[in-house]
């Protein structure tokens, strides 16, 4: 039982050390991820279209 109390005490102390992000940091991180995912998906769509066109021209 003593180990459980010690574990709980240490976990509580560690949680007080955590610095949670503020709303502006969350918003900027979300925007960055959104932009990167959008750019990568557009790039992959472009590559897919180019490869599809080139393959269809080779097949015909």
TrEMBL record:
One Pfam match, given by its short name, reads SecE
Task: Determine the domain of life of the protein's source.
Answer: Bacteria
Q: Where in the cell is it found?
A: Cell membrane; Membrane
Its GO biological process annotations read: intracellular protein transmembrane transport; protein secretion; protein targeting; protein transport by the Sec complex
Q: Does the keyword ATP-binding apply?
A: no
**Primary residence:** membrane
Residues annotated as transmembrane: 29-51
Homology family: Belongs to the SecE/SEC61-gamma family.
The record's subunit annotation is: Component of the Sec protein translocase complex. Heterotrimer consisting of SecY, SecE and SecG subunits. The heterotrimers can form oligomers, although 1 heterotrimer is thought to be able to translocate proteins. Interacts with the ribosome. Interacts with SecDF, and other proteins may be involved. Interacts with SecA.
Please give the name of this protein. Protein translocase subunit SecE
Q: What is the lineage of its organism?
A: Bacteria, Pseudomonadati, Campylobacterota, Epsilonproteobacteria, Campylobacterales
